[in-house]
Each structure stands twice: as structure tokens, then as C-alpha cells.
Design a protein that fits this description.
cell membrane, mainly alpha, transmembrane, membrane, transmembrane transporter activity
Length: 366
């Protein structure tokens, strides 16, 4: 076997190993969820496989039962894809950008404002909305990134606060400025030239999904094939070793946060231009940024892996209504997601202690 073939084979084996634990966590989550289905529907313990069949059939039927349902499921998938990739970039650099929620929200706001500009061609208006989302999310994430790089402040705390500032900023603009419609707590519907092309007249699924897929592929290429990606990964692996090798830790922390925020902001702009078409005052966060953390964890911070992970979580969200109609609490969806995250987190904990033990052995042997 040639050296090239060995390299390909080792890459395939490594990829399969990295997928093993996430797939196992999904299997375990379904195994646990079935017991709650049995409790909700009054099944006996001997009817376990009947309950399992019911759960899977309802999820599949509720999400992919026909063309319209499949397209509607993609509406749930698209924002999770953006926020998943956004979180993956931060995680790769050793950062926890919990502020993707606020960055996504600022992307929504920028699209809602830019989308009201009259007289533009779609070939100008749509790219302008995309650029606005990227800038809004990137600049919003640059604040905790700069504070982390310059003063060492915790990016988790700062980005959480930025989430609430973004939330109340949207409410302020919607309720207290001429942009919002008086007494309706909403912005006007964006111009037709700013709306993304839909796949079908029966669903609001749109080309935002394609933009998300291209974004995941582009980010994967940047992280794996460029100097910038190498430096980001180096800082995430060991910031001290990276600085010893001449890589600026501060610069790459800011870069990582800006890139992460830009992707989240792009996701918000795409979601508004493709699906919402206007924004309202918000009583709370939409949750896409927080769900994106789960997507990134399940994908093991691989942007390409975020695609199936986003499809999984989007499928669960899409099927929640049909679950309720079949006397199965929609909380089953959150239960499955929670169990998946618990098991994926367990894998990270195991790796942490393995690395700690390895370092200890090296120190002793040294």
C-alpha cells in the first residue's frame, strides 16, 4: 500500500472514530426518550419497541412526511447551521462565544433596517443585507473579543451581557423609533427585492440553506487549509506553545470572535430575509445561538459536521408539534437534545483527564 493510500485510509479511520461517540450519544438519547413516550402513552414495559417505533415514525413523519414538511424542516435547520458553525470557530480557538445569540439578533436587526431601503435591485439589495449581517455580528463579537485579548476578561460573561444589550436594542428600535410601525410592535415587511428566493410556493424554505452550506464548507477550508486557520487552531490547542512559535494569541482571539460573530450575524440576516421578513419586540432571546452550541458540540467543532448535526436538531424541533398531537410531550425533543449534549460533554471530560494524565506522565518521565 502506497504512502498516499495509507494517508487516505488513516484519514477515513480517524473520521469514523470521531463520529462514533456522537452517533452513540444519539442512540442513547433515543433509548432514554422512549421510556418517557411509554409513560406518556401508557405503554407497558414489554411494549418498548412499539414505543420506539412510534417515536421514530412521528419524528420522521412530522419532519419529512411530504415535500412541504421536508422544506419546512429546512427552515429550522438553516439558522442552526449558521450558529453551529459560528460556535465551532470559537471552540476551535479555545473560546466560548456564548454571545452568538446576540450576534444573531443584531443580524436580524440589520437585515430588518437595510431591507426597507427602496428602489434597489435584488442583485444589490440581497448582498447588501448579507454584508450588513456580517458586519453587525462581527462588530458585536469584536467587543468581548477585544476585552478578552487586551485585558483577559472572561468572554463568556461579556458575551452573555452583550446578548441582553442586543435584545433590548432591538426592542428600543422597534418600539421607540420611526423604523417600527406605531402601536404594532413590529418593523415593516422588508422590500421584495431584499427577500431571499424560496424553493417552493408552499413553503418559506429558501436559498438561505444553500448560503449556510456554502458557509460551512468555506469555514472548513479556512480552518484546515489556510495560515489563518492554522493559527486559530494552534491558539486553541495551546496558546503558550502558539506564542512560543511566533503566533499572536491576542490577535487570533479577536479574529476568532469576529469571524464567529460575523457568521452568526449572517445567519440572523439570512433568517430575516428568507423567512421572517420583519422583526418584532422580543420578550426573550430566540434561542438559535444557544442551540448552535449544541450543534457545534455534537459536530466535534467540525464545520462540515455541523451540517448533519443541524439537520438532527432541526428535525427534532420541526416534529415537536406532531408529537404533541400524538399525546407525546414536546419536551421529549429537549430531552433528546439534553442527553446528546451530556454524552458529548462526557467525551470531552474523558479527553481532558486523559490529556492531564499524559502530561503528568511526561513530567514524571522527564
Amino acid at each position: 500500500m502506497s504512502k498516499k493510500e495509507n494517508k487516505i485510509l488513516s484519514g477515513i479511520i480517524s473520521g469514523m472514530k470521531s463520529l462514533a461517540f456522537p452517533l452513540f450519544s444519539v442512540f442513547i438519547s433515543l433509548f432514554v426518550a422512549v421510556f418517557f413516550v411509554m409513560w406518556a402513552k401508557g405503554y407497558a414495559i414489554t411494549e418498548y419497541f412499539r414505543a420506539l417505533s412510534d417515536l421514530i415514525n412521528i419524528i420522521v413523519k412530522g419532519s419529512f412526511g411530504d415535500q412541504t414538511k421536508a422544506l419546512d424542516t429546512m427552515i429550522y435547520v438553516t439558522p442552526l447551521l449558521f450558529t453551529g458553525v459560528a460556535n465551532a470557530v470559537a471552540f476551535k480557538t479555545g473560546l466560548f462565544n456564548i454571545g452568538t445569540e446576540g450576534q444573531f439578533t443584531l443580524g436580524l436587526l440589520s437585515a430588518a433596517i437595510i431591507g426597507l431601503i427602496p428602489g434597489l435591485s435584488p442583485w444589490i439589495h440581497v448582498p447588501l443585507i448579507i454584508l450588513g449581517g456580517i458586519l453587525a455580528g462581527g462588530l458585536w463579537a469584536a467587543v468581548p473579543g477585544f476585552l478578552k485579548a487586551k485585558f483577559g476578561t472572561n468572554e463568556v460573561i461579556n458575551s452573555i451581557m452583550m446578548n441582553y444589550i442586543a435584545l433590548y436594542l432591538v426592542n428600543l428600535i422597534v418600539l421607540r423609533t420611526p423604523i417600527g410601525i406605531p402601536k404594532k410592535s413590529t418593523t415593516p415587511v422588508i422590500k421584495g427585492s431584499a427577500q431571499l428566493l424560496q424553493f417552493s410556493s408552499t413553503s418559506s424554505a429558501n436559498i438561505g440553506l444553500i448560503i449556510g452550506l456554502l458557509c460551512a464548507i468555506l469555514v472548513f477550508w479556512i480552518l484546515s487549509k489556510t495560515v489563518l486557520g492554522y493559527e486559530l487552531r494552534a491558539v486553541g490547542t495551546s496558546s503558550l506553545a502558539a506564542e512560543y512559535g511566533g503566533i499572536s494569541k491576542a490577535k487570533n482571539i479577536i479574529f476568532a470572535m469576529v469571524i464567529s460573530g460575523a457568521i452568526a450575524g449572517l445567519g440572523g440576516a439570512v433568517h430575516l430575509a428568507g423567512f421572517m421578513h420583519s422583526t418584532t419586540d422580543m420578550s426573550g432571546n430566540l434561542g438559535y445561538g444557544f442551540d448552535g452550541i449544541s450543534v457545534a458540540l455534537l459536530a466535534k467543532n467540525n464545520p462540515i459536521g455541523c451540517i448533519p448535526a443541524a439537520i438532527l436538531f432541526g428535525t427534532l424541533d420541526s416534529s415537536s408539534r406532531l408529537l404533541q398531537l400524538n399525546n407525546i410531550p414536546k419536551e421529549i425533543v429537549y430531552l433528546i437534545q439534553a442527553v446528546v449534549i451530556i454524552f458529548v460533554s462526557t467525551d470531552y471530560i474523558i479527553k481532558y483527564f486523559k490529556n492531564k494524565r499524559r502530561k503528568k506522565e511526561v513530567a514524571i518521565n522527564g
